[in-house]
Amino acid sequence: MAALRSQPLVAPDPPAELARPPLILNRRGTAWISGKVSGIAEGRAPRWWWAAFLPSAGLTALCFAMIAYLVSTGIGVWGLDCTVGWAWDITNFVFWIGIGHAGTLISAILFLLRQPWRTSISRAAEAMTLFAVICAAIFPVIHLGRPWDCWWLFPIPNANAIWPQFRSPLTWDVFAISTYFVVSLMFWYVGMIPDLATLRDRARTRARKLVYGLLAMGWTGSIRHWRHYEKACLLLAGLSTPLVLSVHSIVSFDFAASLLPGWHTTIFPPYFVAGAIFSGMAMVLTLLIPIRTLCGLEDVITVLHIDRMGKVLLAAGSMVGYAYAIEWFTARYSGSPHEIFAWENRAFGPYAWAYWTMLACNAISPQLLWLRRVRRSMAAVFLLSIAVNVGMWLERFVIIVTSLHRDFLPSSWSYFRPTLVDIGTLAGSLGLFLTLFLLFIRFLPMIAMAEIKGAAARSGARAHGDPDPPGGLSG
Amino acid sequence: MNAAPVLHGWLAEFATADQVQAAAGRVRQAGYTRWDVFAPWPIRGLDDAMGLRRSPVGWFVFAGGALGLAAGMAMVWFMNQHDYPLAVGGKPMFSTWFALPIAFELAILFGAMAAVLAMLALNRLPRWHHPLLQTPRFARATDDRFFLVIESADPQFAADRTRQFLESLECVHVEAVWEEGPCDT
After folding, report:
1. Residue A158, in any domain of the structure
2. What is the pLDDT of residues A298-350, one digit of tens each?
3. How many domains does chain A divide into?
4. Which residues from A are below 8 Å from B76, CB to CB?
5. Within the 49-88 window of chain B, which residues sit less than 8 Å (CB to CB) from chain A?
């Protein structure tokens, strides 16, 4: 015993084939990381940025024009009718809110699971979360019919002396989405403070010194500060994890707590959360695959990162495919004619085209990611991520519209067709999302520099056989 | 305006995390109390080497979360049971079950706000002016260099002896940091 105790517990170095691959390729040092990442937010905007920004800004203008037209004219400019009262707008809402979930998965859940590779992509994914939630928040407000009364959703004392009715999941949704936005914003901003200090210390012009100086809040990198800071980040990750699971569960309650066949299903909360992570991961890949090339970040966002995100996409896609199978099984096994009709109408009714496209995009196409060659091909993963984005939008459309358009009274059956205003608003929200994201990569540190330096210092020390490596944000 | 400059402390610059960690051990051994290490990323184990206690941020988060949970329950009870009771779908006016999603979200919200505010308050941030931020070399503290400061407020501080002590450590450079003026605390 005594002999055992005197031996320090040191794990032997793993054999070469089991060694962890480096987080940063080509032995790039810490100064290279600061220069490269800060450089994206400094200097003149490259041509590709303007080429992407101008059309996005144009679409954003279209978004606001469509909203102005809707508010000034009335909800009739959309394709809704008495039978299909929720359609395009709520599809967009659920689509955008789902996109956000991958950002929190990467920044919080993978943080708690101690996955250091997440540091390269976490900042951009968190920013994507915020912008997706902004896009999502537009739709429930503008579909109210009287959007100027949207503040009635919040418990604000008003002249009518009435309060929100908290037995409805719709009011839970208001709290879930607002909390999600505020907490994601705080997590994103707090995580960015040390990197804003880097930009402040590199600033040459007076305006940049002033703006980044204000944003960095006087961060000096004191170890006494880092200690509270790391604890706060860890707790924010711990709080964000149950939060993100609750947000899409509550979104699914909007449907599941109703009595409508096709919506009234217990599988909805986990099904929606898996779908949200699936669609969000696809959007992260859609954004980051072009950006890593355009910004020259191939050594930071490596092929290995894309490979691993591909595996997450495969896992989430398989869960979504399982949920589709369970929906069918539950409908058949229930023996309820209404449930069976709702499912058969979904798969073989007038919207069969949407159902089968959704199935091909979401359940079948990600299965290609079992192949290593596909996961390591940027073009293939990019195309798959686009397919998943389309498929996940269609999934929400299928759930919402096919459950509504043939209700219990055949005389009121209808077929929803979007109007140009519907389509323009969706395209406009995509423009708003891209505009915000492009502004983010232009003016803020798009990669978590301090975190990645710490993680690289730790993994570098381990590679050189140091058993107790210094450095590293507990990841 | 031309008040005599006041010495804030001595600033030593280090090239690697290992060197600053070794130096921190020596500074603590020498008995200094008003000193600090600055690094571009948190160096694991250095807070223990400096003798810092665990961060109390977690207690603030617990208090914030408990407050949020209680506030959510109380709000739903007040609005739906007490101030504006409205019978909907045969459901009770108040039940902890349907109040739970609201209370849960507010617990997360208040807990997260407590984490951020406690972190800022404990760090005395935001603080837009600091003597160190006027020192050009210190700009690399957010890039790739490590710094150690012994403040003149330390009871053991002696201008020459402290400087010689820092120079005896494995550092790259030692220089003085000045307060901007007597008004600065």
Report:
1. no
2. 999 999 999 999 999 999 999 999 999 999 999 999 999 999 999 999 999 99
3. 1
4. 166
5. 50, 52, 54-55, 57-58, 61, 65, 75-76, 79-80, 83-84, 86, 88
Does a structural domain hold residue B29?
Answer: yes
Assign residue A220 the CATH number of its domain: 1.20.1630.10
Distance from CA of B62 to the nearest CA of A (A): 10
Q: Is A295 in a helix, a strand, or coil?
A: coil
How far apart are alpha carbons B138 and A320 in whole angstroms? 51
Residue with tokens 């790259």: B172
Q: Which residues of B touch A39 (CB under 8 A)?
A: none
Question: Which chain B residues contact residue A450 at CB under 8 A?
Answer: 40-41, 142
* pLDDT above 80 (res A6): no
Does A461 score more than 90 pLDDT? Answer: no
The yes-or-no verdict on residue A154 having pLDDT over 80 is yes
Compute the average pLDDT of residues A253-280: 93
Domain range enclosing A200: 37-153+165-463
Q: For residues B83 and A26, what is the distance between their CA atoms, to the nearest angstrom?
A: 66
Residue B104 lies inside a defined structural domain of this protein? yes
Of B47, B61, B105, nearest to A176 by CB-CB distance is B105
- Report the pLDDT averaged over residues A9-26: 72
Give the CA angle between residues B73, B74, B80 to the nearest 5°. Answer: 90
For B36, the 3-state DSSP assignment is strand
Compute the distance between CA of residue A417 and CA of residue B144 in angstroms, rounded to an integer: 58
Q: What is the pLDDT of residues B8-45, one digit of tens each?
A: 999 999 999 999 999 999 999 999 999 999 999 999 88
| pTM of structure | 0.92
Q: Which domain holds residue B82?
A: 57-122
Position A238 scores a pLDDT of 95
Same domain, B101 and B72: yes
- For chain B, what is the mean pLDDT? 90
Domain assignment present for A430:
yes
* Strand, coil or helix: A288: helix
Please report the number of interchain residue pairs, chain A to chain B, with beta-carbon separation below 8 angstroms: 212
User: Which regions in chain B score pLDDT beneath 50?
Assistant: 1, 182-185
Does residue A93 carry a pLDDT above 80? Answer: yes
Q: Do B112 and A239 touch (CB under 8 A)?
A: yes
Has residue B184 been placed in a domain? no
The pLDDT tens digits for A123-134 are: 999 999 999 999
Euclidean distance between CA atoms A291 and B168, whole angstroms: 47
Position A158 scores a pLDDT of 87
A145: helix, strand or coil: coil
Shared domain for B50 and B136, answered yes or no, is: yes
Tokens for B68, please give them.
Answer: 């949020």
Question: Which of B99, B122, B145 is the last residue before a domain boundary?
Answer: B122
**pLDDT value, residue A374:** 96
Enumerate residues 6+ apart whose C-beta is below 8 A from A87.
A78, A79, A80, A397, A400, A401, A404, A416, A418, A422
User: How many structural domains compose chain B?
Assistant: 2
Contact check, Cβ <8 Å, A470/B18: yes
Separation in Å, CA of B167 to nearest CA in chain A: 21
| Mean predicted confidence (pLDDT) in A131-155 | 93
Q: What distances in angstroms separate CA A83 from CA A73, A79, A200, A242, A404, one per listed residue?
A: 21, 11, 56, 36, 6
The ipTM value here is 0.93
Residue for token pair 């219990």: A408
Pairwise CB contact (< 8 Å): A29 & B144: yes
Whether A30 maps to a domain, the answer reads no
One-letter amino acid at B43 equals I
